[in-house]
UniProtKB/TrEMBL annotation:
Pfam annotation, one family: FCD
Protein name per UniProt: GntR family transcriptional regulator
PROSITE patterns hit by this protein: HTH_GNTR
Entry-linked InterPro entries: AsnC-type_HTH_dom, GntR_C, TF_FadR/GntR_C, Tscrpt_reg_HTH_GntR, WH-like_DNA-bd_sf, WH_DNA-bd_sf
UniProt keyword list: DNA-binding, Transcription, Transcription regulation
Residue ranges constituting the HTH gntR-type domain according to the UniProt record: 2-69
Any GO molecular function: sequence-specific DNA binding
Coiled coil: none
Keyword Kinase in record: no
Taxonomy, superkingdom: Bacteria
Source organism: Streptomyces scopuliridis RB72
PANTHER family in UniProt: GLUCONATE OPERON TRANSCRIPTIONAL REPRESSOR (PTHR43537:SF24), TRANSCRIPTIONAL REGULATOR, GNTR FAMILY (PTHR43537)
CDD domains: WHTH_GntR
Amino acid sequence: MRIPAHSVCTAIRDDIVSGVFERGSRLTEEQLARRYGVSRVPVREALRTLESEGFVTTRRHVGACVAEPTEQEAADLLEVRLLLEPLGAARAAQRRTEAHLKVLRGLVRLGQERARRGQGEDLRSLGAWFHETLAQASGSPALTAPLTQLRHKIAWMYVVDQPASPAESWAEHGAIVDAVARGDAERARTLTALHAERTAAVHRLKRPERGQEKVRASQHAVNIASVRN
């Protein structure tokens, strides 16, 4: 069964975001094909996609390397997020389905419960899931795709600290869902903009250390459980 390029792309992107491949490190087709247990064809396609997304760059006489974004580029990401997330929430208020609302409300309940218990790691993953679902509820691929890419790149470039009041943060999530459920696009936009501004304050730029091992020695294959013929 041929592994599609998008699965390989996801695996490489995840390893870049998590720091398996350091910024500036070289990415060879042979190395990646061996790591993920695939041929070089989907790797080549994946690298082209990742270059278009800004995760990979091609250097003369070197080939594909992990990109090394500047601090200004990182700051621009948060600014773009401040513009797109409120728009996505406004569209969600107009186009959301009952299925979207059910998931969003469930996430808010879980988030509020975890906040009371002080389970910070759970809150981070729940928050990412919440914003991904909110973007999907916009019903606009033109918004969902860049918002998803923004989340990946922000996770790559920033460490996100736990907010001073997680319960307050999840109360904001709840208020956004209420506005979306009522179809109040302007309130959803305003509340999301305020929330994005507050959360921007807990983002700290990652400072990659030079001299670390470029690639972890352990190998892993692409998870093909969800890949269909």
